[in-house]
Design goal:
- This protein is an alpha+beta fold.
- It has 3 domains: 7-53, Uridine Diphospho-n-acetylenolpyruvylglucosamine Reductase, domain 2, CATH 3.30.43; 58-173, Uridine Diphospho-n-acetylenolpyruvylglucosamine Reductase, domain 3; 180-270, Enolase-like, domain 1 (2-Layer Sandwich), CATH 3.30.390.
- It is 28% helix and 25% strand.
- The chain has 10 helices and 14 strands.
- The protein has helices spanning 14-20, 37-42, 78-82, 93-99, 104-109, 112-118, 124-131, 149-152, 236-245, 253-270, and strands spanning 7-9, 28-31, 50-53, 63-66, 69-73, 135-140, 143-147, 153-155, 158-159, 166-173, 180-186, 196-203, 208-214, 221-223.
- It has a 5-stranded antiparallel β-sheet.
- A hairpin with a 6-residue loop joins strand 13 (208-214) and strand 14 (221-223).
- It is globular.
Amino acid sequence: MKAAPYDYAKPVACDEAIALIGPADGNGKFVAGSQSLGPMMNLRLAQPERLVDLRGIEALRACRIENEVVTLGACITHAQIEDGKIDTGTRGFMEHVARGIAYRAVRNRGTLGGSLVHADPAADWINSMCALDAQCLVSGPGGTRTIGNGEWMSGAFTTALEADEILTAVRFTRLSPTARWSYYKVNRKPGEFAQAIAVFIDDAVRGVCRAVIGALDAPPYAIADARELLAADPPAACFDAHLEAAGVEAGSYEHEVHRAALVRAAADIRNQKGSAS
């Protein structure tokens, strides 16, 4: 299958791009790496009348760290993060996650923002940004706004972003030098979307000990205080209680897979050297 005919534009500024997609346009789409939208168009699952290519907008590739706050442009690629071409301020966490996304050909083109906007519950960046409690910076016809981590994703493939808005960047607090992290996901084979994801961020300096249960049929489930799970010998009941709260049915295959990911991620961070929360 090939995509249905469509118009194409490649603006050089966000305002120009936003003007090309508006209420009067009807069925236009912003596109960056096209690693999600492209296959959907080829299968005729999506048939936009116009594509507005964001790759020519330099501002969407800008990254900086100011006063311990990291801002990463939405159009940076997975490969740029993987190769360390950008200082993410996460002490290797995002670099590690990027290496496990799909295949190198996908990582060369796929973007951080594109993944977040697509909002597949099993995607790596959706769950990683939840663990970092990242904010999403958005521009649209009405100006700019910030969407908190808890409000960004409302369901599978559904975000708070309006059709005529652009995700311009993500923002989060830099991890301290003594911070620890772990990331464990279950795939049937390398390159596939995960069946289960578990993430821990333990940053005693900032008073943060956060965990995420991901690859659910819903948005990631965040555990704001995960200290109990990182205890020397945590009881099995505390893992199961969080899985139940995340909507994972006890006794199911999904429960066993998610539980294994959570237990192994917790064990990994406990075995690391560094300051414990």
